[in-house]
Amino acid sequence: MTIAESPSPALGSSQPTTWWHGAATPDELGRWSAVAQEVADALAADVVERDRANALPVAPVQLLRDAGLANLLVPVELGGHGAHWETAFTVARIIARVDASVAQILGYSWLNQACAIFYGTDAEVTRDVLRRSASLRAVWADSFNPVSPDLSLVFDTDRYLLNGRKAFATGAAVADVIVAGAVAEGGARDGQFLVLALDAHRGGIAHLGDWDNIGYRASASGGVEYTDVLVTDADVIGVDTEEPFSSVVTPGVQLLFGNIYLGIAEGALAQAAELTRARPNSWFLSGVDRYADDPITHRVFGELVSRTTAVEALADRLGRQYDEVVALGHATTADDRAAIELAVARLKVVATEVGLDVAGRVFELTGASSTKSATGLDLHWRNIRTHSLHDPVDYKRIEVGAHFLRGTVQPVSLYT
Q: Is the pLDDT at 8 greater than 60, yes or no?
């Protein structure tokens, strides 16, 4: 499968100022929040079993397609639903309350699909990419992992060949499209950093299936290896020209993380509340009949719920702010980009801290019986403990503090 059908983009060709407009309405948020809840309810039926099996999430990904979520952000005129990023982050958060792995795959799908816009240099190519993606209900993944060695893209006679290995590629093994990037060596594209959209199962692409971590076990986050993968002009969806707009995708990734961590905290609290209400008897020194009536239980829930609600308020505000920034399109300035980067970094700090604390401390409320494997309460903590190591949160603290004191902004990267 080739996701782009028009001629490949050329530097300096026509691209509209913006692809995204306006803000989510209450009706939009309500409609897709309800869809997300239906998906979450369906995932809840076997989330513990799927986690134990460490199996590829084939059925959950199909559920996302069938619910219309693969096309959530594609413009209506191109066959999608035309929703906003605020809505998308809310959807991911709702699903993360039950299954952070699947929420991650979905969020990455939107962000990788959006690479056709962020990096696109030709409007017709971008339209064709999005139109075809919508018609296929395609789920997208990527192998951009910057801590792995760069991929090699070398011209050979009349085409390019892609080689290399990326250690992590979340969702790639169950996706339809995988985004990759490399600096072209030789040929007409020599020296350009090309952004590619490839059939995830094209010849020469091997999904290594080597993901076996304590959390995010249903995220299909194993490595991917490219061996002489044929790349043609039709696979090129954009060129990284290092303009501020293209790099706005990275704060979007970090904002996704913050919403998923928040969703994990909300899910842990909801499950803990259910277990606590059903918990018989009480601690013998408490003076009450049931654990749900114990003032200590109320105090701990009160603390955890209050802190989680504060993170929710910040995440909601940033969802709308992100829509405002991406609506600037190619008019985005370095200052615009820095402002959203720093705002999202602040969310990342508190969402990580609160998510880890909540997912761990709910056991104080639910007791020893909740540590049974069948209960699955540990899934929330294992997921956030695993994913929160994606990039060190201490560097987010440094980023925020350095700007607060000295006005400095970190260099643009795939982590900042």
A: no
Give CA–CA dist 248/119, Å, rounded: 10
Terminal Cα-to-Cα distance of the chain (whole angstroms): 32
Q: Is the pLDDT of residue 12 over 70?
A: no
Rounded CA gap, 163 and 180, in Å?
A: 11
Q: Are 381 and 292 in contact (CB under 8 A)?
A: no
Domain 26-139 shares a fold with domain 246-406:
no
pLDDT above 70: percentage of residues in the chain? 96
State the CATH class of domain 26-139: mainly alpha
* C-alpha torsion angle, residues 180, 245, 250, 236 (rounded to 10): -10
Residue 145 pLDDT: 85
Instruction: Select from 140, 220, 144 the least CA-distant residue to 180.
Output: 144
Task: Report residue 78 as tokens.
Answer: 């191109």
Check the CA dihedral 336-339-342-347 and report its sign: negative
Residues shown for the chain: 416
CA 146/CA 169 separation, integer angstroms: 11
**CA dihedral (356, 357, 358, 362) positive or negative:** positive
Beta bridge partners of 277: none
pLDDT-derived band at 364, boundaries 50, 70, 90: very high
> What CA–CA distance (Å, rounded) separates 189 from 184?
6
- What CATH class has 152-239? mainly beta
In sequence order, which residues have a C-beta less than 8 Å from that of residue 131 and are 6 or more positions away?
A: 78, 79
Domain at 246-406: CATH architecture: Up-down Bundle (1.20)
Residue-range domain boundaries for the chain = 26-139, 152-239, 246-406
pTM for the whole structure: 0.95
**Helical pair 295-326 and 85-96, crossing angle rounded to 10 deg:** 150
pLDDT at 13 over 90: no
Burial of 371 (0-12, 13-18, 19+ CB in 10 A): exposed
Secondary structure of residue 356 in the 3-state scheme: helix
Query: What DSSP assignment string belongs to 141-180?
Result: EE---TTSPPPEEEEETTEEEEEEEES--TTGGG-SEEEE
**pLDDT, tens digit (0-9, with 9 covering 90-100), for 211-269:** 999 999 999 999 999 999 999 999 999 999 999 999 999 999 999 999 999 999 999 99
Integer CA distances (angstroms), 242 to 193, 351, 411, in order? 10, 29, 12
